[in-house]
Each structure stands twice: as structure tokens, then as C-alpha cells.
Fold:
Amino acid sequence: MAKLRITALDGEHQGEVLDAQFNPKEIEVDRTIPWLHQGPALLFLGTEPAQMSFELLFDGVEQSKSVQPQLDRLHLLSSVDRTLHHPPRVKVALGSAAGAMPTLDGVIEAVSVRYLTFASNGVPLRATATVKLKEAVGLSRTLDRD
Structure:
């Protein structure tokens, strides 16, 4: 069975891959299409980038194996890249067969990790990570902040 795969598309870690240990139960894809009310008429303003969210489960309990290396890879894909000066674009795909879920090229907006089970020495053996992404065809440089 095809597994959800997140692949870095650019930056110093281009090609780095995180394959889901288990496919998410649900994948949510949202797209906002804003309209402006002008009297009785509606004015189309364009489309917003699609947003995707899902929860991944990492489980090493049966093997007494830490899930931290997989979580570290996920954080790598959402951290500021030294060469890009922003997190890399990633591709999220679940299979490649005809009729498969469409891929999303974007950036990770948020990662929330919940550690669930630990070994007696404190090593995390089970965790979930909620991942939120935003579609990004092209990226602008980082805004300078004072």
C-alpha cells in the first residue's frame, strides 16, 4: 500500500524524504475562494492557496525503538534552511496511480507533536504529529523585520 510521503523540493536538504509509518486516517484540504459584495453583485477576488492538514502516528512501542529520529526529520522539513533563509518547499503525495489523491507542493505552516508513550529511560516510543501546510507555487524572500 502506498504511504504518504513528504519530500523537500529545494534547499540544502532537497530530496530529503519522510515516509509516514502509517497513513493518516484523514487528510483535509481546504481552498478559500473570496468574493466581495458590491451592492447586489459579487466581485470575484481570486483564489487563496490551498491548505492541507493531517495527523501522523509514529509508533516504536513493539520494537522498543525511539520515534524521535522520524520527528527530527519532520522538524528538518519545517525549519529555516540556511541556504534559502526560510523553510523549504515540500511535496506531499499519497500514491502515484491514476486517480490517486492530488499532490500538494507547499510549505509546512505548523507542526504540533504529542508524545504519548515513553520507555523507562524517557525515550519517546509513540507520538502523533499534526501537520499543516499551505500551497506555495513560488516563494518571495523573507521580509526584513526591525
